[in-house]
Amino acid sequence: MTTKIYSLLIALLLGLVPVFASAQTESVSVTVSATVQGEIEMITINTMDFQNIGGESDILNINPIQSERAGKMVARGTPNAEFRLNYLRERELTNVEGTGVLIFNYEVSGSDVDEQDSSEMLDQEVRQLEFNGDGEFYLWIGGLVDLSNAEPGSYEGEFTIEIEYI
Amino acid sequence: MATSPAVCVFCLLLFLHVATPEKASAQEINFGSYADYQIELHDVTMGDLEFEGPIVRNGGVYQVELADAFILEIIGVKYLDVGVLIEGEGELVLDSDSEQTIPFTLKGAYANRGQESITDVQPVTLTNNIGDVRFPILARDQAPPGPPPRPPTGEFNQSEVNESAFLYLYGEIDVGDVDAGFYSGTITINVRYDAPPESNN
C-alpha cells in the first residue's frame, strides 16, 4: 500500500514539472573575402654599366649577383602577394652608329631584401615569387655578350620583363 | 494518523506551484517543437568563402562557382525538417577604409540526399542576399512524412537516426574602381528544426 502511495505521489510530482519545448537554433558565421591587388610598378634604379669594361676577353660578362655594374630595378605591388616573373633572356642590341647587331644574354637575380649578394639567380623562364611585407621585390640585371665579331660603335637594346599576380 | 514525510513534501511542492505567479495558458501541443534533438553544423570546406585572385581594380565580375562553394554540413535527425535562414551582407568592405566597398551577390543551394554532391542540389532563393528554406534532412522524395521520432529519453541515441544535409554558399563580386587591399563581409546562417528562424532584418 505504501509503495502504491509513493508511486502515485511521484507520478503527481512529475506532472507538476513544466515541460520546456523550445526549438533549438544553431548558428554559424561565414566570412566572405577578396583581396584586390595593387598595380605593379617597375622602377629602374641603376642601368647596367659597360663603361671601360673592356679586357683581354671578347666576352663581356656582368654577373647580376656579384658585379657592381649590374642594373638594378625594384618591383612594387601588393605586400606579400605572389607573382609570376618572366623575361626574355636573349635580345638583340643594335649599332646606333652603323651596321651590325650583338646578341645580349640577360641574367637576372632577385630578392625580397635589398641585398644584391644574397639574391637568387632567376634562371628559369618563369618564376613564382612573392613581394615582401612592404610590397617590394628587388631585381639585379646582368648578362654576357660576345664582342668577337662586333663592329665598332655604340649599341643599344631593350630588356623586357613581365610580372603578373598569380 | 501521522502524516508521512513523503506526503509533506508533496504538499509543499504543490503549494509552491500554485503560489508561483505564472501566465495562465491552455495546454498545447506544438508538433513543430523538438525539444532535445540536436543539430550540428560543420564547415566542410574549412575556410572562408574566398574569391581567389588575382583580383584587380576595375576587374569586373569575379565568381565563386557552385563547385568551389563554401559547404556547411547540417547533421540532424534524418526524418525531420530543418529551417535555414541565410543572411549575407550586400558588400565586402575594405578593412582599412569602410568607404571602399565591393558589391557582393550571394547564391545558395542545398543537398539532402545523404552525401555531399553538387549533382542534385536544390537552389535557395535569396533576395538581397537574404532568404530562407525548409527541407528534410534526408529527402523523402514523394513519400509522406514518416512516423514521429522517438522521444529523446535516456535510451535514445540520436546518432543512430542522424543524417547529413549540405548547404552550399557561393556567388559573385563586381570589382570597380576601388583601392587595393583586403575586403570582407559576413554571412550568418541560422538552422533549427521545423520552420526557419525569423530574420531580424
Question: Could you please say which CATH topology of chain A applies here?
Answer: Immunoglobulin-like
Tell me the major beta sheet of chain B.
Answer: 10 strands, antiparallel
Choose one word for the global shape of chain A.
elongated
N-end to C-end Cα span of chain A: 85 Å
Can you summarize the main beta sheet of chain A?
8 strands, antiparallel
Report the structural category of chain B: mainly beta
Beta fraction of chain A: over 45%
Separation, N- and C-terminal Cα atoms of chain B: 65 Å
Total separate domains of chain B: 1
Rounded to the nearest angstrom, the radius of gyration of chain A is 35 Å
By DSSP (H or I, 4+ residues per run), the number of helices of chain B equals 1
What level of helicity do the residues of chain B show? under 10%
Total helix count of chain A?
1
Taking Cα atoms only, what radius of gyration of chain B do you get, to the nearest Å? Answer: 24 Å
Low-confidence stretches of chain B: 1-25
Q: Report the structural category of chain A.
A: mainly beta
CATH secondary-structure class of chain A: Mainly Beta
Description of the structure:
The complex is a heterodimer of chains A (166) and B (201). Chain A is mainly beta and 166 residues long. Chain A has a single domain (41-165), classed as Immunoglobulin-like, CATH 2.60.40. Chain A has one helix at residues 2-16, and strands at 25-37, 41-46, 59-62, 71-76, 82-87, 90-95, 101-111, 120-121, 126-130, 136-146, 155-156, 161-165. In chain A, the strands form two sheets. In chain A, strands 2, 3, 4, 6, 7, 8, 10 and 11 form an eight-stranded antiparallel sheet that branches. Chain A has a three-stranded antiparallel sheet with strand order 9-5-12, with no helix packed on it. In chain A, a hairpin with a 5-residue loop joins strand 6 and strand 7. By secondary structure, chain B is mainly β. Chain B has one domain. Chain B is 7% helix and 44% strand. Chain B is built from one helix and eleven strands; from the N terminus they run αβββββββββββ. In chain B, strands 1, 3, 4, 5, 6, 7, 8, 9, 10 and 11 form a ten-stranded antiparallel sheet that branches. Chain B is elongated, with a radius of gyration of 24 Å. Residues 1-25 of chain B have low confidence and may be disordered.
